[in-house]
Specification:
2 domains; 4-stranded mixed sheet
């Protein structure tokens, strides 16, 4: 009977680990937590990780109307034309497209 309980415990731990790797890339942390504590704590850890997803900031150049999804201080497209234009930070590209009609993403 104890063998069946241990087998079920390990199967649940491996399932949580597989889900953690696929969706949250936190498989090792979830595996160790589930194995040493309980799979219930591993499940709570996995559900808590969902809320801590990272936000992407967008940087907009008003001169050439490009949006960059990586952090830059000045526009590289305008820099090729020897202009030093400072980029404006936005949390969503939708905020930028409300003010302009076309969207060009670099």
């Amino acid at each position: 009977m104890l063998i069946y309980i241990i087998a079920i415990y390990l199967v649940i731990t491996f399932l949580l680990t597989a889900i953690g790797i696929e969706k949250y890339s936190e498989g090792l942390k979830i595996f160790i937590t589930s194995l040493l504590l309980t799979p219930l704590v591993g499940l709570l850890l996995m559900l808590r990780q969902r809320r801590r997803s990272s936000r992407i900031s967008y940087y907009y150049c008003e001169e050439c109307d490009y949006i960059f999804p990586v952090k830059m201080s000045h526009c590289p497209i305008c820099a090729e034309q020897h202009k030093k234009i400072k980029l404006t930070k936005y949390t969503s590209p939708n905020d930028v497209t409300k003010s302009i009609k076309t969207l060009k993403v670099a």
